[in-house]
């Protein structure tokens, strides 16, 4: 390691904090030139080294999906056991314990979570510790929800779990982008979306017995403690982000992590790329004003708008109340949840396959276009132009198409762009 330290001392001492745009641009530069070093073709880094770290990080996305759907099937039995059955307001508050359907409340909480992530980054906590801090409130919240005997106890538990869930996805998106080879970064980024789908489907299927088995909903909450504990434990043995280490001036440790993630052959190039992206004047250090009207305004505006459109689309309402909607048309809830879950999973798999082939922009255009078509089907179903049977097929088909298309692009892409 001492020879490696000497080999890169010039690039390490040249380090200065880079702006977010330059940091992102360095990822794209790796894509085009990673195969060449000193005139020799060294090939792409192996994706196998970083895969296990990505899978551990994806547990936070799995938990996000699980808690998103855990009250879908269990809401009725929870309301009966805790004594608020028939109270629409109480059921709505419980369903939205993590993420309020109110757009203003949701966006405020989302902004708080992003600010918290930035604070964790600047305070020297690091990506691994940030994951562990995300897992802690999810463990506490799930335990409180599983043992409570009142509505207020349930809401407080959901608040704790929601805090961890809000912190998890942005940390996961950042971590996956920083530990993945450029050639598979889009694919690995889509794995977090697939993990969310699997978590959602798991919650829906696990909750099916809740209507026949008294107290089963408590087991559903207890089950979420296990992956949260695994996330906290396995992160202790996962690689730290070399980008974060380099940004903190810990170049030798960054080299060691790059060696684990990319292989010895690619360490020198990776460090050189980080050093190249960090060169510049002290004036290049990003300021808060840059996000409002400076050089970072455009990327911040586009990313924030995509996140806003993602949430204003109403996808959370579909996940929370799909069982109720399908039941109103005489479709069993377990079949309904299976259809929604499979559509979500299929879209995420397509995104993983196409992300690095078609690009982010093409997926976003296709995704939002498909969402518009699905909403058009819903409008036709609610109009007088469709027959009773036709309105059923159009409404249910439009809902599944909406889930499919949002999971192809509007779901996974925004977090990859920022």
UniProtKB/TrEMBL annotation:
Its main location: membrane. Residues 53-418 form the Major facilitator superfamily (MFS) profile domain. One of its GO terms (molecular function) is hexose transmembrane transporter activity. Keywords: Membrane, Transmembrane, Transmembrane helix, Transport. It comes from Quillaja saponaria. GO terms for cellular component: membrane. The chain crosses the membrane at residues 159-176, 188-208, 214-234, 299-323, 335-355, 362-386, 392-417. The keyword Membrane applies. This is Major facilitator superfamily protein. It is found in: Membrane. The keyword Magnesium does not apply. It is a multi-pass membrane protein.
